[in-house]
Amino acid sequence: MKGRVSMLKKWLAFPLLAIFLTLGACSQDEGKEGSGNETEEGLEPLEERATVVIAEDGAASGAGFYIANEMGYFEDYNIEVEFATFSNSDEMLPAIAAGEVDVAGGISTASFFNSIAQGIDVRMIADKGHNTPGSSYFTFVIREDLQDEIVDYEDFKGRTIAVSSRNAVDDYIFGEMLSHAGLTRDDVEFVLMSDFGNMLAAMGNQSIDAALQIEPLITQGESQDLHVRFKDATDYAPEAQIAMVLGSPKFLTEERDVAQRFMAAYLKGVRDYNDAFIKETGDLDRVIEIMTEYTALKDPELWKKVGVTGLNPNGRMFVEDIKNQYEVYKENGAIKGEVDFDQAVDTSLVEEVLDLIGEYE
């Protein structure tokens, strides 16, 4: 567990949500050296060491956090990070709002927006996951034996399609695909299948025809001749915001100097990731080594084959798409209350940091 802190849960009381979070800690590599890089003018290391608590569950979209930690970018600014895990967002979001957690990863769901509408104050501050054109990590697959029958999106008509959620980003992307195909939900058989692994088995026994699947199971299913990748999600949802970096209002205001340095380090980690996976000019082996340590995908060779999570090296989100997703959930009757996006989306930290470290090209 290099440079990581595992945290159990012990946290009490928020109206309507009883949750438990433990901020206990076993710190490692206390003497971890920084990267040796010079910091930017205006972002010198903090005079006093600061600890930033990140709620992250080992998702691949947390690459920026993991790489920045292992490459010493946080250390460069005299920041130590601690990783906390939660079983679900109902536990995580109040902890962020209360400032017990500084930063977290979140995905677009009706439940997420409902929490904000009901007074849980968290801010969406940076990109943490979108599909990359040509190699989406989250896209449709079809059964291997149906390749001659399903050749375009309209061929999904009458087919059985598995999706992992309702009124969440999966369901939103499913709807965008149907609109692109000129189909309605009545034209297909929707199967709710929350476990992506079960989709592989359903492909194998031919109980479904297609699925909205995620890496590395897309690549795994292809290797087992269960399914094939079907086109690309960016055909119909080119700017779908799948995950966001969330920030605590307390962290963003009372600890702005720490937040700026944290974001600078995070973006440096994301840029290493893009150099390695997208531009193919970076240290791919080192980045894969870090990803195998922090995530469930432990095979370095498989990392060279999968469609990786898209991460914006400038941190910018597809804000309009976030709003579109909210409106879709609202039209479905899944949203209770209103979300003030002028407050809930805060891009100011990213823009401040980009002024200091420059844009990635």
UniProtKB/TrEMBL annotation:
Assigned GO CC terms: periplasmic space
InterPro entries: SsuA/THI5
Alphabetized PROSITE patterns for the sequence: PROKAR_LIPOPROTEIN
One GO process term, biological-process aspect: alkanesulfonate transmembrane transport
SUPFAM superfamilies, A to Z: Periplasmic binding protein-like II
Principal location: periplasm
Signal peptide: 1-27
Pfam families associated with the record: NMT1
Signal among keywords: yes
Compartments, record wording: Periplasm
Occurrences of domain SsuA/THI5-like (ranges): 63-271
Domain of life of the native organism: Bacteria
Keyword field: Signal
Family of this protein: Belongs to the bacterial solute-binding protein SsuA/TauA family.
Protein's recorded name: NitT/TauT family transport system substrate-binding protein
